Rubredoxin-NAD+ reductase
Amino acid sequence: MSHQPVVIIGSGLAGYAVARELRKLNTEIPIIMLSADHGGFYSKPMLSNALATGKTPASILTSDAALMSSQLKITIRPFTRVKTIDQSGSSVLLENGESLSYSHLVLAVGADPIRLPLSGDAVEEVLSVNDLDDYHRFREALKDKKEIAILGAGLIGCEFANDLAIAGYQVHVIDISAHPLGRLLPEEAGKYLQDKLAAAGIRFHLKSKVQHIERVGSRYRLIFEEGQIIEADFVLSAVGLRPRTQLAETAGIYVNHGVVTNRYLQTENTNIFALGDCAEVEGKVLPFVMPISHAARALAATVSGTPTPVHYPPMPVFVKTPACPIVVSPPDPIVIGEWQIDANEDGVKALFQDMAGSLHGFALLGAATKEKNAITPQLLPILA
């Protein structure tokens, strides 16, 4: 094997998962991790319910870069940005002018928050939370605030809304969908969630689109396309993520919705890999924790000399909304089928079956979440 290092760009869950799995298989191969921020390790999913669990930004950080470097026996370079990738030379050029050669390059650069095309003098003051530094700014901005507006009723928007409501804030959630978690839940399940969150004090503004945000004294005025106006002390945007593909695209690496890879997490260049929120693996972009774990194990084996395709079994996702417990395994949008729904005041059990009766997804809310372990084995694998 080449004595050149494996270079990992990114120090989030994906980057560290690869480093850990690779180190389990090979204690000698040099590994360099390049981090655009402090390089410390923390659980990003924890950010959306840290208020309710009493976590401060400082306590969310599990280990700093120095400790991670010592534990994994890798080189971590915080506050280091890559300018370009030289595929032909198997090297990366850093913004400081330094060049690093690699035997294998791993892109684990994550995703960026989607920014809505809004007008108004307060647009730049709208915050998104995508990493620990963002969360620190978010917590600072919350001080002395009472009324919060959240743009987006997806998974992250609902989790933050429930977290803020538990902490005593007045919360507005705005979305163009007819119900919360519009991309994950069928309508009846979405309405059930909406009722539970509304009972917790959250006000929904659905089938609505914010067009303009302006500052009015110490507050913000949100003007909807439909003419409605609300005011809030703080505005959080949680309308989704877009895979970071600019670095790959500039280097001539094929990009579609994400950095395109095969089952081996390889791009068209067999020594350049991608995983996590930035990657599109066999046409699938899966911005969740479990796909990262499966991808990291497969990639580490491949880099260690045993080519291993990634397999995605059923991977249900727990939504952190204490007002309404939810576990969901969303069906692939290309599958033709329909939801079979059993609902009562205690919960909703929704099963998505294809025309042959095979189970491709489910949504379990309230008391129905107890059925997860019984139903999950019936699901077809996401990537066999």
About this structure: The chain has three domains: 6-112+241-304, 115-237, 325-378. The longest helix spans residues 289-303.
